[in-house]
From TrEMBL:
Keywords: Cytoplasm, Signal. InterPro entries: Reg_factor_effector_dom_sf, SOUL_heme-bd. May bind free porphyrinogens that may be present in the cell and thus facilitate removal of these potentially toxic compound. Binds with a high affinity to one molecule of heme or porphyrins. It binds metalloporphyrins, free porphyrins and N-methylprotoporphyrin with similar affinities. One of its GO terms (cellular component) is cytoplasm. Monomer. It comes from Carassius auratus (Goldfish). This is Heme-binding protein 1. PANTHER family: HEME-BINDING PROTEIN 2, HEME-BINDING PROTEIN-RELATED.
Length: 232
């Protein structure tokens, strides 16, 4: 993707900024699971589906390593734009080894729950490192980038289509948290994750998610769809 096109994409709200290459899917994570909605990246974060209700899914993710950066901003879209630029430069060769590699999916944004309108918030944007660099990733030349390790964990997930905007992300996070509270599920209330899987050039069948990290045993609710062994 050219620099000119990247600059033009900076005007698109929030994770329309995700310039994913149109490539076949392979895996990072559990090898026996797949993401049918992840179709534009060579490598995509994989998971095992634990159960599904009408309101959310419970997924299990194995430990993975990401390259991350923080951005202080009053609005999620502004913070994501600043952070995305740094990370895109990193995968385009702005590292000590001069390595260039393709985008992975999804792009993940950690969003603090308590955000005061008159104070900026800290948003953390992360790119999943390709499987070839999970153990020894290239060292960033920008000191604002760092590596973060996602632990082996369960998450509550709500999926939705369309474009990921600040307002839509907040609305779906609110709907997910309400469903979890009704189910008496325990989860981390300090932040949620906003995830985007698609490039800005994809107009139909877009896929976005919000996550809350499970605390304790996951709860599927009284009525849920049990999954046979080996189903994903």
């Amino acid at each position: 993707m050219s620099v000119c096109l990247l600059r033009r994409l900076m005007g698109v709200p929030l994770l329309c900024l995700l310039c994913l290459e149109s490539l076949a899917v392979s895996s990072v994570g559990p090898s026996n699971s797949s993401s049918s909605f992840c179709s534009e990246s060579r490598e995509c974060l994989q998971f095992d589906l634990v159960c599904r209700t009408e309101q959310y899914e419970v997924r299990h993710y194995s430990a993975t390593r990401w390259v991350s950066t923080d951005a202080e901003a009053y609005f999620l879209g502004v913070g994501a734009a600043m952070a995305f630029r740094r990370l895109y430069h990193y995968i385009s060769g702005a590292n000590e080894e001069g390595v260039r590699f393709e985008m992975t999916a999804p792009v993940l944004v950690e969003v603090p729950e308590e955000v005061k309108m008159w104070e900026p918030a800290i948003y953390t944007l992360s790119f999943l490192l390709p499987s070839a660099y999970q153990e020894r990733p290239p060292t960033p030349t920008n000191d604002k980038l760092y590596f973060s390790d996602m632990p082996d964990m369960d998450v509550y997930v709500r999926s939705y289509g369309g474009w990921m905007l600040s307002i839509t992300s907040r609305v779906h996070a609110h709907l997910l948290s309400r469903a979890l509270l009704r189910a008496h599920a325990h989860f981390n209330h300090t932040h949620h994750y906003a995830l985007g899987y698609d490039s800005p050039l994809k107009l139909l069948n877009r896929h976005n998610e919000v996550w809350y990290v499970v605390e304790g045993d996951p709860v599927c609710g009284e009525e849920h769809t049990p999954l046979p062994t080996g189903t994903h």
